[in-house]
Specification:
212 residues, 74% helix, mainly alpha, globular, single chain
């Protein structure tokens, strides 16, 4: 075999290019989302007064918060899928959902209230919230971990934790259409606790399955 033929053979052997991690992550999430939606509709379903609730800004705020969390998680996950990168440049994205909640609490405080603060904080769906969001997050989290394995995260626990934040944000978006507790106090307390649980699971899964 002459030199030119050898070069062509080697080039042909190395023509395969791995798909970008963002593309793989998107495919994995698209595959997992119907599973989480099936769980949502089989266990919960959309609240009966959803059309009326859509005129309530506090109901709409829930979706702004959960989608902001999911978007921040996606951006940070893709960033952390590369080796030796800091989170500092993307960590500020998680301030957005926290800021929205703070604005919502302040706005609600200026409204006339029919219920005491503790009643609005505890709500009537706290147990369902703490169960449904983590359960619906699990397929999304598993898909996220599989997608991130196509990258090269050098901090697997952190990457897994951020994947947990993203998964919880998506699952909480589904759940928000069922939840009749629209107070930002309820969202801040129970959605946050459910998200923290998923984030912990993600960190443990990441430390196990994203380590190279």
């Amino acid at each position: 075999m002459d030199t030119d033929q050898l070069i062509r053979t080697l080039a042909a052997d190395n023509s395969y290019r791995p798909r970008p991690v963002g593309f793989v992550l998107a495919l994995m999430l698209l595959a997992a989302a119907p599973v989480s939606l099936l769980m949502f509709f089989s266990m919960l379903g959309v609240r009966p007064d959803v059309m009326t609730a859509m005129h309530n800004p506090l109901f709409d705020l829930k979706f702004a918060v959960t989608l902001a969390l999911a978007a921040a998680g996606i951006a940070a996950s893709l960033h952390l899928s590369r080796p030796e990168v800091p989170l500092a440049g993307f960590g500020w994205l998680f301030v957005i959902p926290a800021g929205l909640l703070a604005a919502g609490i302040a706005g609600e405080a200026m409204m006339p209230q029919r219920l005491p603060m503790m009643t609005r904080l505890v709500g009537s769906n706290s147990r369902v919230c703490m169960t449904a969001i983590p359960l619906m997050s699990l397929p999304l989290l598993a898909a996220s971990i599989l997608g991130l394995r196509h990258g090269a995260p050098t901090r697997p626990a952190l990457a897994g934790a951020v994947a947990g934040l993203m998964s919880a944000g998506l699952a909480a978006t589904f759940y928000a259409s069922h939840c009749t507790d629209d107070s930002p106090l309820f969202v801040t307390t129970w959605y946050t606790l459910a998200t923290a649980l998923v984030t912990t699971i993600g960190a443990l899964a990441g430390s196990r399955f994203l380590r190279f």
